[in-house]
Amino acid sequence: MNRADAARLREELERRGYRATREPDEARLLILNTCVVRQNAEDKVIGRLNSLKPLKRDGQERALLVMGCFVGSAEEGQSGRGLASLHQEYPFVDAFFPPSDIAGVLEYVERWDRERGDGLRCGEPLTAPEVSEGVPISYGCDHHCTYCIVALRRGSQRSRPVADIVRDVQDLVARGAKEIVLLGQNVDAYGSDLPPDAAGRRPNLSAVLRAIHGIEGLWRIRFLTSHPRDMTQEIIDTVAALPKVCECWELPVQAGDDVVLRRMGRGYTVAHFRDLVQRIRQATPDCALNTDVIVGFPGETEEQFERTLALVRELRFDMVHVAAYSPRPGTPAARLEDDVPAAEKDRRRVLIEEVQTEIAAEINARLLGRQVEVLVDGQQGGRWRGRTRTNKLVFFAAPGDWLGRLAHVRITWAGPWSMRGEPAGGDPED
């Protein structure tokens, strides 16, 4: 979501004549877009912010702006840190903006330009989009997971109109994007906050997928992140029915024990999650299924952790993003005793990672000798790099320009997190 916000802001600034630079001391506008999903992320924000402080003292005329979850939601009582305290703590920052407040940043920049007498400069052609681009379809979340600071910082769900989403996708595809990732804190709940039509129906994620599916030049569609409470059979059936929608599911389970799930405020049981996985795999048999797990949540016993580990072994996810619980100030879970020692959290995290590494290696080994379709998105280490429809990373060496092309690659080596191969054909293919 932050990358999508940054890309959109970059485009709007380019339309106003600005150009990005990789060197902060060359910039007249310094914009720090922030994430605080875990404590280590917030620590990085603070470190980066303080590293930019000298640039406000070097005699150059420049503005330093901070946006994102470090600032928090604009909603009353949801900010985590008030603007007054932020300005007091970081007086060298010129302005703070809540998450995704691109309009606010642009309004500030235009006023800053006018005050300096620059006026609107003539913009050059926009930077080409990436091969795969994210498009937010909603902001915020109406769930109240007890550990989650993102909902507090980003506020309640705000779905964008379908027509606006379609227009953004059409623009990106017309300028060269081949894959679109629909984004939301809870993408499955899209539309639940929008007004119903005359027949009493609200647009939903399935409607968005169908609305963009026919856009010419769009090759692949993905969406994330899903919530097991809001994943419906209609969404599952829509993914199975639309060829451009990739059969890759991001479905966080977080824990494999019902008591822990209840304390987390997740609103579903392990049995519900199992049933959902079964229905997804029935509808999309060759799919990939990725999940998130938190270990060391307050009160998590060894037995409860073992149930989570057993669920990982049973369901055999393609990827598990595992994190040790860290309390976030302002969340309900922060009021609970953080009673699992750090060393024990780390042990549990490593166990999950070791089991998942074995599972991922076994899943990917099945692709040895097989041909897969790879959308090439760049180069790395002298090889072309891309992803399959199931989001598996593939490298291959070949002459020619393969960027933004579909390559049919025969897999010659498979590891748990990436694979290597050789093109089945000699030339890049449109």
> Count of DSSP helices?
12
Largest sheet, spatial ordering of strands: 12-13-14-16-15
User: Percent helix among the residues?
Assistant: 25-40%
* Mean pLDDT over the full residue set: 92
How is the biggest beta sheet arranged? 5 strands, mixed, barrel
At CATH's second level, what is the architecture of the largest domain?
Answer: Alpha-Beta Horseshoe
Any idea how many domains?
Answer: 3
Beta content comes to: 15-25%
Instruction: Specify the CATH class of the largest domain.
Output: Alpha Beta
User: SSE order, as H and E?
Assistant: HEHEHEHEEHEHEHEHEHHEHEHEEEEE
Coarse morphology: globular
CATH topology category name of the largest domain: pyruvate-formate lyase- activating enzyme
Q: Would you count the extended β strands for me?
A: 16
* The named CATH superfamily of the largest domain: tm_1862 like domain
Distance between the termini: 29 Å
Give me the Rg, rounded.
23 Å
Point out poorly predicted stretches: 74-80
Q: What does it look like?
A:
The protein has 430 residues and is an alpha/beta fold. It has 12 helices and 16 strands. Helix 6 packs parallel to helix 7 and helix 7 runs parallel beside helix 8. The chain is globular and about 65 Å long.
Key descriptive features of the protein:
OB fold (Dihydrolipoamide Acetyltransferase, E2P); pyruvate-formate lyase- activating enzyme; three-stranded parallel sheet; alpha/beta; Rossmann fold; 16 strands; five-stranded mixed β-barrel
Can you describe this structure in just a few lines?
The protein is of the alpha/beta class. Helix content is 34%, strand content 20%.
